[in-house]
Amino acid sequence: MPRRVALFGGTFDPIHLGHLAAARAALDSGVVDEVIFVPAGQPPHKPQGARADAASRWLMTVLATLDEPAFRVARWEFDRPGKSYAVDTLRMARAELGDAELYWVIG
Q: DSSP string spanning 42-89?
């Protein structure tokens, strides 16, 4: 059976208990085996200067998820230039995760 992975994107500026609760609910549902948090690199719907820098948001997300082995944080949107669009993130996820079943956490 392929790995079942939920992708949870957002600016996470800052990441908070609501984000962690949504990810926990995805795990507790039994539908997914892990949750990958994907902090937005350059979200097209938010102005450039209105958020913490990418490195700070990534680090906040890493620190917030350290205690849960089924959570991890991807740098996919930070490591590519330009605006962050879901279709590009899915391509990067597919390239890294192979035949894993992919799900979205939305909330």
A: S-TTS-GGGS--HHHHHHHHHHHHTT-TTEEE--TTTSS-S---HHHH
